Amino acid sequence: MRYMLLIHAAEEIYAKMSEAEMGQLMAGYGRFTTELEAAGALLGGERLQDVENATTVRVRGGKTEVTDGPFAETKEQFGGYYMIEAKDLDEAIAWAAKVPCSANGCVEVRPIWEMEPA
Amino acid sequence: MGNGACLIESPDAVPEGSGGRSQPDSPWRAQIEAVFRREHASILATLVRRCGGDFFQAEDLLAEAFARALEVWPRQGMPDRPAAWIQTVAQRRRIDQQRQRGSSEELSPDHSGASVFPSEPDEAFAGEDDRLRLIFTCCHPALDREARVALTLQALCGLTAQEIARAYLTRTTTMSQRLVRAKRKIRQAGVPYRVPTGEEVAPRLATVLRVLYLVFNEGYSATEGDDLLRHELAEEAIALTGQLCEWLPQEPDVRGLHALMRLQHARRWARTTPDGDWVGLAEQDRSLWDRAAVIAATGDLEEVLREAPPGPYTLQAAIAAVHAEAPRAEDTDWEQIVALYDRLLLVDPSPVVELNRLVAVAQHRGAEEALRQWDQRVDASALDGYLYLHATYGELLAQVGRSAEAREAFQKALYHAENRAERRLLLRKLAQLGPTEGG
What we know:
The complex is a heterodimer. By secondary structure, chain A is of the alpha+beta class.
């Protein structure tokens, strides 16, 4: 099955990190990505820029409404994702627990809505 | 529970009146329902595996096979192995359905294929593994906590959504929706149908045991509602835990939990008055305790304690056993109970255990000593909404004559009381403190 690992964490944590700590975190992500790749489980993944660069778009009554910021103010922000291939939810959970930010933020595991072949 | 009620309907369905496939008074119906009750878990467990983890399909097949039994058995007589008959009919139907869909490649979540007919002598061996898979899946941490309890009662104890709803004082439709949602998540999110291995075992088993203990405790903590039903819920939990002991003999804390449940259940007739008021351990009429059950459970517990370092449930069972062996409340070996709580805090620390320990300390060395330890050991903020915290504090303060503070604590407890029995007990405590000083 394909799963999306949605990584959420409080951005302020990163703002407060020293350069060395940030380097460690990034190295952690590097190792994690390599491990996913080696297991043949990596389908994709990106880090997003901070929510201060987010723009939210809604179309209402045919009009495009654009607002600054994320769609909802939350304590933890969506900051990146991995798309993985896993045998089942347990395997996906095991990968999620290895995402470095699961130690200070959280990772939401969502199965992909697979389209039935037409 | 469930004597004759709608067992053979599709499990989540709300029963519609009395209209069934056969006459409700048929002696066959009762017999077939007895088979259903007894064999439900093992048949369903195997079917879920064959359906690749799809509970909906497995339950439909099971319901169809039982409906078929209602037609065939009255004509041809009860088969020698009714469970194998049901299993075979369901399995044949599953294969038919797959053929109709024309996808032969899907034929193998297992390798049973068509060769299983007419019956499988080795089914009994596979059955145990399947029931373990079933219980671990029903108690999977990715499912909502209440849904785990409901799903366990439905899949493993054969209760209908209606019966579970009655036990939990919810509407049948609410309970059905909860069950459907959980089964859908199992299918859609890929919750696996397997017994965890290696490092996963300990946390996953802890989840299973918590669900079983929750099922058991719900029999007691819901103070409104049907007494008999609640005792039966507790007994379902005891029976299922007993089976789990056999399936997982290498896990001593399962046996600890089994002993704990039986020790607590032995006190069931003494814990409430005929009016439904709570009776504390100290005031219980100990002649009402089920002595035979206490002796059996204590014997098992001693065996567990000899074999392995005790887990959290085994320690709680040991505490219950110390209470059980005291002929009168004043004979209780409080020193040993405090020591057991100290060990419990090492393996499974929690504010509730801390609180219970202090109650034992008060008994052993007096309320003054317990109050002295209170501030450093109890995190009141973590338990502020917890009635028992305030009630216990009030009790200790009352014992040392600090009536005004005791009154305040009891009033806080009253604020958090959720049912009539709790409120009445607290009002009694407040009345015992006497009139408010200074008017």
